């Protein structure tokens, strides 16, 4: 018998954990022509599944370890799970969180009685300081995923699913993947009881550590991770969780930001609850999988893993959900700069379609570049609209999936700059804390002129900042060496077609 399977059977979680319902999603089921069930881990007292693994680990500590107290490094759901578990057991808890952690999450941890230490700009820096405190204080570390008892705690979800589906013929269970603790636990239990049920992991395209690790047959360390689904933004999966995934997981599929956002909306329509981006991964995966495999009349289960959503992210989610539902398309179009051309474009191309956005600014007497959004059935009508533009003599590109345009360029269109020389463009991730911009600017040499700047808050721990610079020929290497010292993640977007068309 698998050791973790045995630990799941003997897990001690129900002093504090709810057996969450497995809800029928009527709207999703009708939409997808399959039966969709939602495992509602968003209904736990800490609004996520993380309470299971944290409590199971802490309750199994020895008496001496409990006297020492516990410590964890986390900016999110694991922090709340450890804090509430320690409070329930009367144990001291210290949680190290990055200074960029939203105040709502800091307050939630404090409310559960833990001491919060804010340190560093990101999880890695908080974790390093956590290790320092462990050496200095002797506090017992509670890992977020790569531990047998933590995995067993999460695996109790699998045990509950089996009890709740005695009359169901379950085709597949879809599980969000970050460090891998959740899928390792669920897969271990399910495959030891009903090996024919598929276990499918779901990751964001920009945080795909498990997908790549399974593909390469060894653990991969990502250079950078996405910031939208921050609950699964892990650069390297666990050693033990990876082994369990190799043993039991059928496959891992990837979904993008738009698909995640539209799935948050789908879940809201069925439950009237708003899950966090990581909590919608499983539904996004089911939608994609059903479409790719053309499946009907099957039963699928999605793990709604959490609902710790920052309120100020909702506008961004709503904006991206429209594209994720394939109800909007974005086009970059070059048209002649002549009187009446705008009207002609609307008559020949837009016709009966609703315009969702339109960006234009006089930049040249010869030609104009516009960014237009149309409300369409993307999969059925996109090709037809592109053909309309081509027939009318317009140069047009489908930029619906260009992330730079969706996050920055659409807000910056005001005509091409006629004066910038040797201009380069970067997309940065700044920690969302006071002084982050000044630190960046103070490290910049004054000879390098900033030629463009765009920032828009999305409610996460990091903000995406788009900056253009004038860098003389021969100085780019020196410039990028300085960027490495500042140590903010960045991507060189100079060759992105959006910059050439609109900036």
From TrEMBL:
Keywords, in A-Z order: Amino-acid biosynthesis, Branched-chain amino acid biosynthesis, Isoleucine biosynthesis, Lyase, Pyridoxal phosphate, Repeat
EC number per UniProt: 4.3.1.19
Residues annotated as domain ACT-like: 329-401, 424-495
Pathways involved: Amino-acid biosynthesis; L-isoleucine biosynthesis; 2-oxobutanoate from L-threonine: step 1/1
Domain of life assignment: Bacteria
GO process terms (BP): isoleucine biosynthetic process; L-serine catabolic process; L-threonine catabolic process
Pfam families assigned: PALP, Thr_dehydrat_C
Signal sequence interval, chain numbering: none
TM stretches of this protein: none
Keyword Nucleus (UniProt): no
GO molecular function, one term: threonine deaminase activity
Cofactors (names): pyridoxal 5'-phosphate
Reaction catalyzed: L-threonine = 2-oxobutanoate + NH4(+)
Keyword S-adenosyl-L-methionine: no
Alphabetized InterPro entries for the sequence: ACT-like_dom_sf (IPR045865), Ser/Thr_Dehydratase (IPR050147), Ser/Thr_deHydtase_PyrdxlP-BS (IPR000634), TD_ACT-like (IPR001721), TD_ACT-like_sf (IPR038110), Thr_deHydtase_biosynth (IPR005787), TrpB-like_PALP (IPR001926), TrpB-like_PALP_sf (IPR036052)
Subunit structure: Homotetramer.
Known function: Catalyzes the anaerobic formation of alpha-ketobutyrate and ammonia from threonine in a two-step reaction. The first step involved a dehydration of threonine and a production of enamine intermediates (aminocrotonate), which tautomerizes to its imine form (iminobutyrate). Both intermediates are unstable and short-lived. The second step is the nonenzymatic hydrolysis of the enamine/imine intermediates to form 2-ketobutyrate and free ammonia. In the low water environment of the cell, the second step is accelerated by RidA.
Family to which the UniProt record says this protein belongs: Belongs to the serine/threonine dehydratase family.
Protein name: L-threonine dehydratase
Gene it is expressed from: ilvA
């Amino acid at each position: 018998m698998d050791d973790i399977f045995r630990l799941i059977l003997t897990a001690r979680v129900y002093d504090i954990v709810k057996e969450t319902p497995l809800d029928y999603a009527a709207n999703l089921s009708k939409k997808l022509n399959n039966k969709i069930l939602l495992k509602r881990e968003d209904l736990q007292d800490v609004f996520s599944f993380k309470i299971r693994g944290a409590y199971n680990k802490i309750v199994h500590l020895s008496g001496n370890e409990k006297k020492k107290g516990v410590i964890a490094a986390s900016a999110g759901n694991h922090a709340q799970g450890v804090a509430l578990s320690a409070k329930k057991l009367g144990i001291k808890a210290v949680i190290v969180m990055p200074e960029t952690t939203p105040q709502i999450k800091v307050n939630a941890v404090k409310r559960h009685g833990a001491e919060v230490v804010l340190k560093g700009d990101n999880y890695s820096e908080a974790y390093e300081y956590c290790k320092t405190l462990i050496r200095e204080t002797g506090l017992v570390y509670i890992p977020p995923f790569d531990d047998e008892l933590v995995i067993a705690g999460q695996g109790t979800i699998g045990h509950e699913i089996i009890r709740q589906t005695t009359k169901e013929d379950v085709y597949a269970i879809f599980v969000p993947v970050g460090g891998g603790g959740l899928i390792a636990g669920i897969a271990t239990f399910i495959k030891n009881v009903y090996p024919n049920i598929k276990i499918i992991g779901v990751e964001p395209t920009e945080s795909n550590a498990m997908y790549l690790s399974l593909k390469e047959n060894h653990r991969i360390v990502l250079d950078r991770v996405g910031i939208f689904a921050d609950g699964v933004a892990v650069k390297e999966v666990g050693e033990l969780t990876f082994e369990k995934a190799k043993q039991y997981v059928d496959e891992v599929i990837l979904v993008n930001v738009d698909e995640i956002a539209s799935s948050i909306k789908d879940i809201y329509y069925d439950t009237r609850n708003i899950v966090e981006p990581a909590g919608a991964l499983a539904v996004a995966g089911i939608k994609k999988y059903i479409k790719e495999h053309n499946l009907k009349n099957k039963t699928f289960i999605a793990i709604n893993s959490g609902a710790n959503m920052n309120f100020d992210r909702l506008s961004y989610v709503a904006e991206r959900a429209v594209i994720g539902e394939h109800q909007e398309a974005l086009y970059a179009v070059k048209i002649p700069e002549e009187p009446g051309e705008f009207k002609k474009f609307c008559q020949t191309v837009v016709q009966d379609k609703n315009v969702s956005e339109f960006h234009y600014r006089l930049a040249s007497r010869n030609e104009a570049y516009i960014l237009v959004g149309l409300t369409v059935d993307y999969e059925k009508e996109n090709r037809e609209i592109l053909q309309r533009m081509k027939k009318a003599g317009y140069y047009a590109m489908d930029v619906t999936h260009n992330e730079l345009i969706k996050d920055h360029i659409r807000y910056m269109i005001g005509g091409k700059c006629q004066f910038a020389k040797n201009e380069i463009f970067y997309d940065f991730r700044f920690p969302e804390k006071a002084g982050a911009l000044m630190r960046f600017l103070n490290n910049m040499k004054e000879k390098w002129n900033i030629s463009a700047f765009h920032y828009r808050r999305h409610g996460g721990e990091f903000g995406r900042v788009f900056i253009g610079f004038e860098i003389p020929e021969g100085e780019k290497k020196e410039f990028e060496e300085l960027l490495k010292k500042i140590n903010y993640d960045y991507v060189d977007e100079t060759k992105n077609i959006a910059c050439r068309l609109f900036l």
